[in-house]
Amino acid sequence: MFDDSHYPSSSLPPLHYLDSAATCLIPEQVVAVNQRYLQFEHANSHRGFYPLSSDLTDRVENTRQQVASFINAPCAQQIIFTSGATSAIHQIVQGYFADKIAAKHNIVTTVAEHHANFVPWQQLAQSVGAELRIAPVKASGEVDIELLTELIDENTLLLTISHLSNVTGVENPLEQIINQIKSINSSVKVVVDGAQYIGHYPLDVSTLGCDFYVFSGHKLYAGFGVGVLFCHQRVIEAMSPVVFGGGMVERVTNNQSLWQTGIRRFEAGSLNAQAIVALAAAIEYIQFARSNDAQLYMSELSNYLRQRLSAIGFCQFLVATDKATPIVGFNLKGIHSHDVASILAEHNVAIRAGHHCAQPLHSYLNKNSSIRVSLALYNEQQDIDAMIDGLEKAHTIMAV
Ligand code: PMP
């Protein structure tokens, strides 16, 4: 809808890219900003006194402000640039919780987390003999709030939970969850993995009430290399740097080092200014699209996807929900997801097959793997039609 540059008019067949939950293709506007950056604007920010560097420093800091406004964070000094969601979660685990956790504590999470928001907590809990408590999901794919709240007690250190599942596309009602768990134990911290949510829905971290919110730029049309860690003011002062080096220190002597006071103490080393500049362009792209009915467009396209999949009769959805979102997980009766993906690839349809870095969820659902179709702003109904044609072929060839 908003960029058809991925549908070449040459003799190449069009690619029906339905794997944006893995990474979004990069819109022309963002490519243009990247190219200009590489040709004329590349420098090391926060270092030089010459304009090439100092202008870039301003752009990086303006992007910080832009990100804060985009997610309605109270202030730019609560936005930390990382290399992605995974490294943002590591900053939280090692920088905030590692020196606060003890054997008596428990960490609450859900069975539907991406490994990036599961394994680091599992490892942290095991390192001190603390308990990792795992809330199940309901048949609809949403976390079971009743069972989740039963896991919270006076020794719960944190809840870590995704906003939108990368496997099922189901959204967790986070405001309700956060209110409920904080009413049981107001000191429980809440970490939200927003990697899949951020590209699809407006986010307001101030009303959400979470302590940490993370996402990656590449799921937001910006390409690889940048992630965001939002921290609530109540946690930021008590968080320590995890990576040490240039740019994050106030003073270094032979015997000791003093960190910078602001969030720059969490950004050691040369910043990936190229990716940050691209993130700024990607946010502009999304905001322009949203001011031109992108939300409506995506909800209609998501409904169309679900309706077409439901109609073929041999599609088994992973979870029973009638809420259509841009991500859907399913299997075809009697056919391995890898075979389906290979047949679709022959028809120039790109989807994802496997466990999508969510093995606990697949085990819980008693599945070895699944197919995931995920949409973005550049998709059209014809992409879904091509995918459905491919599924029908797979069914004809493979079904026993
Ligand atoms: N959480 C979720 C829900 C994801 O889908 C992903 C990426 N697939 C991540 C975390 C990790 O993101 P990244 O690989 O960009 O660090």
UniProtKB/TrEMBL annotation:
Role: Catalyzes the removal of elemental sulfur and selenium atoms from L-cysteine, L-cystine, L-selenocysteine, and L-selenocystine to produce L-alanine.
Coiled-coil spans in chain: none
PANTHER family documented for this protein: CYSTEINE DESULFURASE, CYSTEINE DESULFURASE 1, CHLOROPLASTIC
PROSITE patterns in the record: AA_TRANSFER_CLASS_5
Keywords in alphabetical order: Pyridoxal phosphate, Transferase
Catalytic activity, EC: 2.8.1.7
Gene Ontology process terms (BP): cysteine metabolic process
InterPro entries: Aminotrans_V_dom, Aminotrans_V_PyrdxlP_BS, Cys_dSase_SufS, Cysteine_dSase, PyrdxlP-dep_Trfase, PyrdxlP-dep_Trfase_major, PyrdxlP-dep_Trfase_small
Chemical reaction(s) catalysed: (sulfur carrier)-H + L-cysteine = (sulfur carrier)-SH + L-alanine
Cofactor: pyridoxal 5'-phosphate
Gene Ontology MF terms in the entry: cysteine desulfurase activity; pyridoxal phosphate binding
Protein's name in the database: Probable cysteine desulfurase
Family affiliation: Belongs to the class-V pyridoxal-phosphate-dependent aminotransferase family. Csd subfamily.
Location of the Aminotransferase class V domain: 16-386
